[in-house]
Amino acid sequence: MDSSLPILSLAAGAVAATAAVAPKLKARIELSRAKHRSLTGHSKMSRRVARLIPFYEFDVGEFFRSDGAPDDVATKRRDGFFALSATYKQRFAKGREMTAEAAEHISDLQFTRAYRVPFQYSRLVRENLGVGAFMQSSSGVNVTDIDGNSFYDLTGSYGVNIFGNDFYKECIEISEQRAHALGPVLGSYHPVVADNVRRLAGISGLDEVSFHMSGTEAVMQAVRLARYHTGRTHLVRFAGAYHGWWGDVQPGVGNPVSPHETYTLAEMSERTLHVLRTRRDIACVLVNPLQALHPNGNAPGDSALVDSSRSAHFDRAAYSEWLKQLREACSERGIVLIFDEVFVGFRLAPGGAQQYFGVKADMVTYGKSLAGGLPIGVVCGKRELMRRFRDDRPADICFARGTFNAHPYVMTAMDEFLSRLASPNFRAVYNGLDDIWNGRARELNDMLSAADLPVRVDNLSSIWTVSYTAPSRYNWMLQYYLRAEGIALSWVGTGRLIFSLNYNDADFAEVAKRFVAAAAKMKTDGWWWQAGGLTNKAIRRQILKEMIASKFGR
Ligand SMILES: Cc1ncc(COP(=O)(O)O)c(C=O)c1O
Question: Does ligand 1 come within 6 angstroms of the Cβ of 343?
Answer without folding.
Answer: yes
